[in-house]
Write a structure and sequence with these properties.
By secondary structure, the protein is mainly alpha-helical. The protein has a domain of 166 residues: Up-down Bundle (Growth Hormone, Chain: A). It is built from 8 helices and 2 strands, in the order αααααββααα. Strands 1-2 form a two-stranded antiparallel sheet. The longest helix is centred in the N-terminal third of the chain and has 30 residues. The N terminus is likely disordered.
């Protein structure tokens, strides 16, 4: 039988993996539909923004700039919604609704991806703003660069640094010398791996399923039920 601590860790890993896989899936579909523009990875889009400016590719430059601007606006709107919800996970249901609408737009207007673009961008911004803490650990599920750094740092701190590190040196805070918890190692690693798996699934299903955006929408609904059942009933637990 699992202990409460083990159950808690499993729940955290389930939440991180589920949301990361959803993000990777949506990013893969967006990348394919928008010819190399990401709906939620603004690092990649910003690099392309600079490149297209330097190459005077003004049409693509404008589209990428619009994407970045929409993401920023989506983040503002998502933050406003989150602060007015007592249970922030409910905002993920709004994200699921956006994905369903985007799926219908994609189905009815396949030659006009710009109608789909704002919906996917807003949905990714909404996910990023809704939940960014898991078990007290700050973690994003719509990007993985920072998660890889957190994974490597926690791995070193937990397994590769001698035990002498845990005795604080002069002028060093106690928190700086604490051995990372197991969840601090596993969650960033799971986030990265699940993101890649989700992207692979999106790349496959986009060609084999007539309504691929229904998959993350359904998963989000299930994730909301799981989050509501296993996480504290306070908004601060998600920020």
């Amino acid at each position: 039988m699992s202990t409460p601590a083990e159950t808690s860790l499993l729940a955290l890993l389930r939440h991180v993996a589920g949301l990361s896989a959803i993000a990777g899936y949506v990013e893969a579909i967006g990348f394919s539909d928008f010819s190399g523009i990401y709906p939620g990875i603004m690092t990649g889009n910003t690099v392309q923004f600079g490149l297209t400016f330097a190459k005077a590719q003004w049409a693509l430059f404008g589209t990428i700039g619009l994407t970045v601007g929409l993401f920023f606006i989506g983040g503002i709107l998502a933050s406003l919604v989150r602060w007015h919800l007592r249970r922030p996970p409910l905002e993920l249901l709004l994200m699921a609704a956006l994905l369903i609408v985007a799926g219908f737009v994609r189905l009815l207007h396949p030659a006009q991806p710009m109608l789909e673009l704002p919906l996917l961008v807003f949905s990714m911004a909404m996910q990023g703003e809704t939940i960014s803490r898991f078990g007290g650990v700050s973690l994003q599920t719509i990007v993985v660069t920072s998660n890889l750094l957190k994974f490597s740092d926690a791995l070193v701190g937990r397994y590769l640094i001698p035990s002498a590190r845990h005795a604080p040196r002069t002028g060093q805070s106690q928190s700086a010398t604490q051995r990372p918890e197991l969840k601090e190692v596993l969650m960033p690693g799971f986030a990265w791996l699940s993101y890649g798996i989700g992207a692979a699934a999106g790349a496959v299903l986009i060609h084999r399923f007539w309504f691929p955006l229904a998959v993350p929408a359904v998963l989000l609904a299930l994730m909301v039920c799981d989050l509501m059942a296993t996480r504290p009933h306070t908004a601060d637990a998600f920020r």
